[in-house]
Amino acid sequence: xxxxxxxxxxxxxxxxxxxxxxxxxxxxxxxxxxxxxxxxxxxxxxxxxxxxxxxx
Length: 56
Prior knowledge:
The chain is elongated, with a radius of gyration of 16 Å. By secondary structure, the chain is mostly helical. The two termini are 30 Å apart. Helix content is 80%, strand content 0%. The longest helix is centred in the C-terminal third of the chain and has 26 residues, at 30-55. It is built from 2 helices and no strands.
């Protein structure tokens, strides 16, 4: 199983538990998470470009 999928599933599970317990999540606002996603995608893009340029 993909590590990203496991991480996502764990996050969803924690979110469900927080909702059932009616506890406010300590997670940052959604806009911060979108920024983090952009950072991760940028990192993956550069890694992919470097791998392809080295292979060629």
